[in-house]
Amino acid sequence: MTKFIAAIDQGTTSTRCMLFDHDGNIVLSAQREHRQIYPQPGWVEHDPLEIWQRTQEVIQEVLDKGNIKPGDILAIGVTNQRETTVLWDRNTGKPYYNAIVWQDTRTKQICDELSYDGGQDRFRGKVGLPLTTYFSAPKISWMLDNIPQLRSAVAHGEALFGNIDSWIIWWLTGGPPHGVHITDVSNASRTMLMDLESLDWNDDILNTFKIPRKMLPHVVPSSDKHFYGTTSRDGPFKDIIPICGDLGDQQAALVGQTCFNPGDAKNTYGTGCFMLLNTGTKVIQSKKGLLTTLGYKMDEMPAVYALEGSIAITGALVQWMRDNLGLITKSSDIESLARSVEDNGGIYFVPAFSGLFAPYWRSDARGVIVGITRYINKGHIARAALEATAYQTREVLDAMEEDSGVKLRDLKVDGGMIYNQLLMQFQADILGVSVVRPKIAETTALGAAYAAGLAVGFDELRENWQISHTWNPQMELSQREKLFKGWLRAVERTLNWVN
């Protein structure tokens, strides 16, 4: 009888459930979107209960599609949008507030005030991260300061914090009042609260943010043969199944791309864009605006670290052109619109909608389109929007090579935008290295399945990874550098917009 590993992939815009077989092939899949909530400019929220509802729905859809019986699923892995912050009541399961999403910038004042003593890199030596609105700690602090009675609930042991992985696993393992409250090292490393060396919460930083340790989840490996917990027969899986894999989405893609050697790198093209470089068991502190993060920790093996370049807006720019401007009907239309012109017509589109992430970390920046003339039409805007993703990736790659001293030979890619042939070719051209797409491009879910599968004996990983397509650079060096210099000039125009 065929056995499966289930992966729950809870992303910024949707939730998926996917079943993988022993060879890493996708057998069944279901996906549903959830609402994006924008209460004020710069604020981005999700409804945690809606996310849990969508999770149950996609699980049910997969079980129904495949006529899955108890015992068919050996293990479950979870992967999630990182940094997005939920606080909830352990007795009722009710959130105290909407989840504050990683893109949200409301905590800028908190970060600025903490930066007065020690600057933006005040905690970087311990946690590998700059003090910015991106991470969970200032979001928790904002909630504690702005939600009535929340500090009292924390003091009484009623309030729990988690990123979305903790929220989903807590509900999968029974929910109120005894759901398993954990997070793995990769997610914990995105809170700005976990010490990179000890892999535990740092009490000094907790005290600075005034965050009580008792509300935090227990930090565990990304793959655990002893399991985090099990589902219950009255839960959505209708079976008792071990949950033994947990990874933040970008680290899951690192695993799914089998980037297991120091110097291996991948880039995920989703709502944002995230490039990770495996640096092995050594912590490398970036001098070029990158993040030092946990790559993964497999059971009792040593932790593996990574350098990360995070870009806030890539696929989200295509969604913005679809939903806010109405220039396209569906996201895939962006390629044909961009191909209606030969080039960008001399314009650059810098999508600093919520500031700039790596390598700048400037929350005062805002988006610009520069170089506009009467010649420009919507095709040029579409092309400039796609090129923005490639230029931002080039900036991150340059910083990564300087920090690590490693010259990349190729870049493994995944995510929804890798089917855009125009973008992928331009990416290879502007980087000057080959861009490689794997046969199974759903590497985020695959990484979560790998992590869970390793705990139960599904361990043939490298053998399963295969190339689907390679784009080789075709642009002359002089043209590549001319275009990139124009991009850097455009980025300068975004800075110092917000006081």
Instruction: Report the β-strand fraction as a percent range.
Output: 15-25%
Overall residue-averaged pLDDT value: 91
Helix percentage: 25-40%
Q: Which regions have little confidence, pLDDT < 50, spanning 5+ residues? A: none
Bulk shape? globular
Cross-sheet strand order for the largest sheet: 15-16-14-13-19-20-21
What's the alpha carbon Rg, rounded to whole Å? 22 Å
Total number of strands = 21
Sheet having the most strands: 7 strands, mixed
Your description of this structure?
The protein has 499 residues and is α/β, with parallel strands linked by helices. Helices cover 32% and strands 21% of the residues. The protein has helices spanning 48-66, 108-115, 124-127, 136-146, 150-155, 164-172, 185-188, 203-209, 249-256, 315-323, 333-338, 378-404, 421-431, 443-455, 477-492; strands spanning 4-10, 14-20, 26-33, 45-46, 73-80, 85-89, 99-100, 159-163, 182-184, 218-220, 229-230, 242-248, 265-269, 273-280, 291-296, 304-311, 348-350, 368-370, 410-414, 434-438, 467-471. The strands form 6 sheets. The chain has a 7-stranded mixed sheet. The protein has a 6-stranded mixed sheet with strand order 3-2-1-5-12-11, with helices on both faces. Strand 19, helix 13 and strand 20 form a beta-alpha-beta unit. The protein starts with a strand and ends in a 7-residue tail after the last helix. The relative contact order is 0.13. The mean pLDDT is 91.
